[in-house]
Amino acid sequence: MPHAHAPPAPPVLFSFPSSAQLTDALAQFIIKSQKESIEKKGRFTVAISGGSLPKLLTALIDRPGLKWDKWQVFYADERVVPLDHPDSNHALATRELFSKVPIPASHIHTIDPALADDLEELSDAYEKELIREFAMKDSARFPIFDLILLGVGPDGHTASLFPAHELLSEEDRWVAYIEDSPKPPPKRVTFTFPVLNHAIRVAFVAAGASKADILPTVLDQPEAGLPASRVRPVSPGALYWFVDDAASAKVQYSKTPFKL
Predict the structure, then answer these.
(1) Is residue 171 part of a domain?
(2) pLDDT tens, position by position, for the chain (260 residues)?
(3) Would the keyword Hydrolase turn up in this protein's UniProt record (predicted)?
């Protein structure tokens, strides 16, 4: 008989009075996740998305306990632009974080913008980067990240998975491309739900009143099926939300006091 996964665990919602407290708690959480992963397998695999997220990771700079040489970083989604372009998630993450910490450049896995004219080839090449890091070591059907960090847009999108888009039903590919993103720039690559939902930990991060209207739909009405609501890691994965009180002002979902 096929092995049945236990149902996904419900999200854990942490809400903080200020964005400074949010970023500090998120840094503590990331360090603890890193420690557990390195103790278990000698490396820490992380995926991050763009948007406002890299700015919320700055509490990691100069923090003790970080073993940057053990990190392997991927992008949960990326805009198909040159890596130094203002729209590039990698450019933003480099400016906000990676240029200020001692992470080896070879441990940050980017798309190959030279393949921008063929999105199929570009997404295949990025999938091969994942295969090199994961398939040789874990031999799993999908890569199992130690931690994926995501944001949420005002329409409920996450990574580059947008409401009502055909990519929401992708079940086989690890990396898919989109040519018609409702948000510019139109060409992007993104991890698919199977990759997001096989992570050991997924943490959404959202700050500010601009997130206050979408969070109740994502957290209180998951049946609405917004992309962010469909991130539910399979057992034994866990899902966390790190938000500030401005973002969670209208949420009914129960909040959990933060402790490690």
Answers:
(1) yes
(2) 444 567 887 999 999 999 999 999 999 999 999 999 999 999 999 999 988 899 999 999 999 999 999 999 999 999 999 999 999 999 999 999 999 999 999 999 999 999 999 999 999 999 999 999 997 665 568 999 999 999 999 999 999 999 999 999 999 999 999 999 999 999 999 999 999 999 999 999 999 999 999 999 999 999 999 999 999 999 889 999 999 999 999 999 999 999 98
(3) yes
Beta pairing class for 201-206 and 175-178: unpaired
- Residue 219 sits in a domain whose CATH number is 3.40.50.1360
Extract the tokens encoding 50: 């763009």
Which range of residues forms the domain containing residue 188? Answer: 12-58+68-244
| Total structural domains within the chain | 1
Which region, left, alpha or beta, applies to residue 223 given φ > 0 means left and ψ of -120 to 50 means alpha?
Answer: alpha
Q: Do strands 44-48 and 71-75 pair parallel, antiparallel, or not at all (unpaired)? A: parallel
Examine residue 194 and state whether it is found in any structural domain, yes or no.
yes
Q: pTM of the predicted model, to two decimals?
A: 0.96
